[in-house]
Amino acid sequence: MRRKINFEFVLMILIAIVIFIIGASLIARNSLNNLTELNLNHYQDMLEIEANQNSDYQSIIDKYESLNQYLRISFIDENGVVLADSLATNLDNHINRPEIQNIGEVSIRYSDTLKIDMMYLANQLDNGDYLRLAIPSASILQFLNDFIGLAIVVGIIIIVLSIMLTSVLIKQSLKPLKDILLILEDINEGQYREILPLEKYDEINGFIQEINKISASISNNISSLKSEKSKTDFLLEHMNQGLCVLNKQKQIILLNHHLKELYNFNINLNMHKDYRFLFRDELVQKAIEKAFENKEDSQIITQIKDAFYNVSISYRKTHWTNESSVIIIYNDVSNMKEIEILKRDFFVNASHELKSPLTSIIGSADLILQDMIKDEATQKDLIERIHNEAVRMNLLVMDMLMLSEVENKLTQDKMSTIDLDKLVDDVLTNLSYDIDKQNIEIHRNIQVKTYQMNEEDLFQLIKNLVENAVKYNKDNGHVWIDIFEENDYINILIKDDGIGIAKEEQTRIFERFYRVDKARSKMIGGTGLGLSIVKHILINYHGHYQIKSQVSQGTSINIQLPLIKK
């Protein structure tokens, strides 16, 4: 812009100077012609007086010999014969010369004698002869050339000075615009600064005011867009779902952090490339192709390492660039899959656990109903078997109900202060048959007197742990019950010197229906849900457990429940 203004300004000055030189030259030439004509008339009057008084024309020419370079004097008779000439001899007849034909009028013509352009003026003397004076045009042109040369030099000086002055003025004039440009660049980066009015440039101030308004609006819009983009980026990067968008060329145009990490995808190298650079699963590829071909949505389940994902593939007619696209969303359904597996296993195990006693009950009942057993002792044995299996079923159902309650946190509302000594007494009383049967020696050390929680939950927790310590013990074994405070927790330590648990099975003993020794469990009549109930009670009360066990040496389970600060 600056160069353009400089060029246009200099061009304008150059044109003005050229016009000025041409006009001045024409005016100067005209003025010089008039001055020369005036001089001719002056010399004509002066010499005409002398010639009328003195007919010796040669003497007059000799008198003005000093003017030969400037003035040509000619005397011509009435027939056109040249009587005397200051610059030539033996001249042709001049009767037809324009100046002789037009007495008293100035004429400019080429001189055949002197071979130059001259200005002529002739008058008739009293004796009938002609006095002709001529001045070379070269004398006029020399002055005119000098004038034009001087004008050109002055013009060049004016142009140079104009360029320098114009550069300074343009620089000063454009400075506000440069400042405006810098401020607009800041606005483009989201940094708004108001442009202050200029004292010397009232014409620009209105423009500045409008720019300030537009800039403020643009800055606000940019800030809003950046804020929205930051929110969107934050959500995309921190959402626990995988998100990918493909354009109509099936290229990746958007990919969030979750999906990038899931596939260990190099986004810098593979962005805007075919989706197969990311999705290698054939099932996913087929679903994507189907979405593009049929323009319809679909859902599939895929497995990546040990996790399961529900993949939602949706076709969209337009996205932010007004083109068709396919949106792919990955939802981690591993927990749901795990729950589904657990439910399936639970129903299978529950059905199996109920089927065995039911089969025994039905079989025994059929034998009695069909009067196939006559022996009273055998009938009594069958009735006892029916009773035992019914009790076993009842225990299983009660444990299932209890497990359902603790899983759904239905017991936590009934909080109370529990006497731990009394609670342990109740547990031992409840298990006294099994304790006496195996002649188990109980060692108890209750250092904490009370604790606040749901009494039934705490009873079930201690009862299931002590029951396992008794049932999976050896005859004449020992069980230790220690309750103490440590590090803001109440610790319930149940230890035995029984059969122990193998290391590889220690992580599974809290699963539903899992038994370490299935044959022994069937013989002693456990339901397989006791430790599952313990685990969910601990979850509800933010507790922890630690297990230490060695085969044939016994098991130690330490339960930690947080102390309630008063």
TrEMBL record:
Protein's UniProt name: histidine kinase
Cellular component, GO annotation: plasma membrane
EC number of this enzyme: 2.7.13.3
Keywords for this protein: Kinase, Membrane, Phosphoprotein, Transferase, Transmembrane, Transmembrane helix, Two-component regulatory system
Short name of one Pfam family: HATPase_c
Aminoacyl-tRNA synthetase as UniProt keyword: no
Domain Histidine kinase: from-to ranges: 349-565
One GO biological process term: cellular response to phosphate starvation
First and last residue of the signal peptide: none
Superkingdom of this protein's organism: Bacteria
Enzyme class: transferase
GO molecular function: phosphoprotein phosphatase activity; phosphorelay sensor kinase activity
Entry keyword annotation includes Transmembrane helix: yes
Listed InterPro entries: BphY/WalK/GraS-like, HATPase_C_sf, HATPase_dom, His_kinase_dom, HisK_dim/P_dom, HisK_dim/P_sf, Sig_transdc_His_kin-like_C
Transmembrane segments: 7-28, 147-170
Source species taxonomy: Bacteria, Bacillati, Mycoplasmatota, Mollicutes, Candidatus Izemoplasmatales
